[in-house]
Design a protein that fits this description.
Number of strands: 13
CATH class of the largest domain: Alpha Beta
Strand content: 15-25%
Number of helices: 14
Order of helices and strands: HEHEHEHEHEHHEEHHEEHEHEHHEHE
Structural class: alpha/beta
Shape: globular
CATH superfamily of the largest domain: EAL domain
CATH architecture of the largest domain: Alpha-Beta Barrel
Helix content: 25-40%
Length: 401
């Protein structure tokens, strides 16, 4: 074992009647399949739960339906003439990153499963799917999406509206948020022994204007103050290190712009003095293209004693190519891979393949988003080294030992 958040939210399977009590109205589903018999069968199955069901016989037709009205869930085949299900999902993600898309396919394969997971597919079900499984999957997905929509509405009407104001107002709001900035920590455990081996440090504010890390960093990007924010966060982490045993690692998230900050590479900086226990977790890898000499910069950080982690492998923007490009010491498997892995043979296959690759490369794996005992047992059996999630501990302030 190395001596060296769950960001997820619990969306249990619920009945459609419970969903329809939510203020967003009757749940609607778009069913896409080139087989008319399958369309009829899915429609009968879902209509019995009083869903509003709309059908499309191709990916192109489905995109037209999505332009005509809003849906809570999409259920689609993969193998279709013209635009296949993967290309359809890719087009959907250009419009809505959160709309639940469930694949129901008679030609399941590891390649399409990996594509589906990386594009943020909600479920990957093999035909013939049991009616109760389809109904439950659609119900839980609709509930998830409605929760996201309520969050969007709340953010728009209160906190995140500040991002739409002028720069002076945003600057003032950002400064107020910085005055309340603090760190919370989430434990990372050994999958085999259950002992705590590390913590992930997560930034928080008490600001109602910039109420979560995404809003805080969006403001910092607009104001060109990302490096300043990164320095404040790293200083806050250093202040908390005495509260963490020296044999436990500390994961610190980096924004891509942090990799352009000379202070990060200063061997005399307070964080560098503790580099032997620090894992720098690189996020938002789509934005790494503007970081010139990325490999050399990561090599300099390793020379200082830091370890490097790739975050969210399996999320919509993540790809295995990140492992090749960054040569990390740790890979964190996103909750989109882990959610329901105990009951999903395709996800098991993907996780097993990634873990096997990482083991061959000498890379540690962390399964994120563990929320059930069954998920914990599954990732342990599949060989994940470390585990993290609400089941094991929620993010919370550190307290003196």
């Amino acid at each position: 074992m190395m001596s060296s958040e769950s960001r997820s939210q619990d969306f249990p399977i619920v009945e459609l009647e419970a969903i329809e009590t939510q203020p967003l109205g009757k749940a609607s589903v778009l069913v896409v399949d080139d087989d008319a018999a399958v369309l009829r069968a899915h429609t009968r199955t879902l209509a019995r739960t009083q869903l509003d069901v709309v059908t499309a016989s191709s990916g192109d037709e489905a995109l037209i339906r999505l332009q005509e009205r809003a849906f809570d869930v999409v259920v689609t085949d993969i193998s279709m003439p013209g635009m296949n299900g993967i290309d359809f999902l890719r087009a959907v993600r250009l419009v809505d990153a959160d709309l639940p898309v469930l694949f129901v396919t008679g030609e399941a394969s590891l390649d399409t499963a990996i594509d589906a997971v990386e594009l943020g597919a909600t479920r990957y079900l093999a035909k013939p799917v049991e009616p109760e499984v389809l109904r439950a999957s659609v119900a839980s997905s609709a509930r998830m999406y409605r929760s996201i929509l309520r969050g969007r509405e709340a953010a728009s009407s209160s906190g995140l509206a500040i991002l739409l104001r002028g720069e002076a107002a945003l600057e003032a709001a950002f400064d107020r948020a910085l005055s309340t900035l603090h760190m919370v920590a989430q434990p990372i455990m050994s999958a085999l022994t259950g002992s705590r081996v590390a913590w992930e440090m997560l930034v928080r504010t008490r600001s109602s204007e910039l109420p979560h890390p995404g809003a805080l960093f969006s403001a910092a990007e607009r104001l060109d103050r990302v490096r300043e924010l990164g320095r404040i966060i790293r200083a806050a982490v250093v202040d908390l290190l005495p509260l963490i045993p020296e044999d436990e690692m500390v994961f610190v998230n980096l924004h891509p712009d942090d990799l352009l900050d000379d202070e990060l590479f200063d061997g005399s900086a307070p964080l560098a003095e503790q580099s032997f226990r620090i894992v720098l977790e690189v996020t938002e890898r789509t934005a790494l293209g503007h970081v010139d000499g990325l490999a050399e910069r990561l090599a300099r950080l390793r020379k200082l004693g830091y370890r490097i982690a790739v975050d969210d492998l399996g999320a919509g923007y993540a790809a295995l190519s990140a492992v090749v490009a960054m040569r990390p010491d740790v890979v964190k498997l996103d909750m989109s891979l882990i959610r329901g892995v105990d009951a999903d043979d395709v996800r098991k296959g993907v996780v097993s393949s990634v873990v096997g690759m990482c083991r061959m490369l000498g890379v540690w794996t962390v399964a994120e988003g563990i929320e059930t005992e069954a998920e914990l047992a599954a990732v342990t059996e599949l060989g994940c080294d470390l585990v993290q999630g609400y089941l094991l501990g929620r993010p919370a302030p550190l307290t003196p030992r």
